[in-house]
């Protein structure tokens, strides 16, 4: 027997609303043009009764135009939702990343359509309206086969003798 569920279609966009989420991964990346950003992968928790479980948002935190650092307002809002106040300085990206991974919080999102005046193209983007403390602060998310738990991952040791060439 085969079960096809239209609520799990590929092109079904997460509806505007409030969701219990956590940051699954963060990485420093760059566009082919060289513009740098931090990619933040946010997962909708599957240990909470809510729609769109296991769906992922990808948010980009862009490098400031003057190159002096990233725009980290979203991370500041998340840090506050996690119960922390004040300014936090991290000596490395890896330490900052570890401080945010797998900590639950709540987001209220909406979709906003903007028009690029120079090209005339319209773009629909995710907009974070609110970041709040989680109503369920204990995270029991169960990873699916497609998801990866970055905290549990270990490097693969491959030697030259393992390669066929």
Automatic annotation (TrEMBL):
Xref: InterPro entries: DUF669
Native organism taxonomy: Bacteria, Bacillati, Bacillota, Bacilli, Bacillales
The name this protein goes by in its record: DUF669 domain-containing protein
Top-level taxon: Bacteria
Pfam families: DUF669
